[in-house]
Amino acid sequence: MPYRLTFLFVLAALALPGAAKKTATATGENDELILTATLYIDQADIKDLVGSDLDGHYFVASVKIQPKYGKTVTIDRDDFLLRCFDGNDTSRPFIGSQIAGQSTMVVGKVMEDEGKKSKPRITMGGMGGLTGPMGQYDNAPAKVKENPDAKMTTLEKTLDEKILPEGKSDAPVSGLLYFAMEKHKMKDMELTYGAKETRISLHFK
């Protein structure tokens, strides 16, 4: 009888769905570089990375770029795009002042029905969140109107210190990228990098 019960418990455990994955790593390459990214979608993991859960409005990617064959590559954060296939939400990387500063940010135009563009969505710094549904964007880089009288917050400073640096490099470069994304499953996420001809697409499973 005890063996029968043990067998039943094992079967029940196997029937349970696996826990949703909260961290995943993917690697891809083109002729110039190797790209490795670890995506964090859980608030607790994000807090461990930057000291804040960013109010649950952002996913964070830890990225490493390795130039190949001694080549010099140009790193531009706007070449990255995080996409969710479930709903087709997209986001380009944000900088510290856009997330935790006192600036005013125009995020971009949201696509309405029949392809019409609505007014740009505007949000204040300090993780106030994004207004309205995520929707589809025209993918234009976010524009920031700086407040010259604002002081840099501790979180803003931390985010900028850890962010992926831009510029030319022939050596490996690492850093974090912050994307306005929330409440999506890891299996639905894709991170792309570069122009269409040399684009690297990473899928997280």
List the topology elements:
Elements: H1 2-15, E1 23-29, E2 33-40, H2 43-50, E3 58-67, E4 73-75, E5 80-84, E6 90-91, E7 93-94, H3 96-100, E8 104-111, E9 117-124, E10 143-145, H4 154-162, E11 167-169, E12 173-180, E13 189-193, E14 200-203
Antiparallel strand pairs: 1-2, 2-3, 3-12, 4-11, 5-6, 5-13, 7-12, 8-9, 8-10, 13-14
Report the C-alpha radius of gyration, rounded: 20 Å
Give the overall pLDDT as a whole number.
79
Write the CATH fold name of the domain at 19-99 and 155-203: Immunoglobulin-like
The portion of residues assigned to helices is 10-25%
Distance between the ends: 40 Å
Number of helices: 4
Order of helices and strands: HEEHEEEEEHEEEHEEEE
The poorly predicted ranges are 5-16, 108-125, 128-139
Morphology call: globular
Task: Please list the strands of the largest sheet in the order they lie side by side.
Answer: 1-2-3-12-7
Q: Characterize the biggest β-sheet.
A: 5 strands, antiparallel
Question: Would you count the extended β strands for me?
Answer: 14
Query: β content, as a range?
Result: 35-45%
The level-1 CATH class of the domain at 19-99 and 155-203: Mainly Beta
The second-level CATH architecture of the domain at 19-99 and 155-203 is: Sandwich
Structural class, from secondary structure content? Answer: alpha+beta
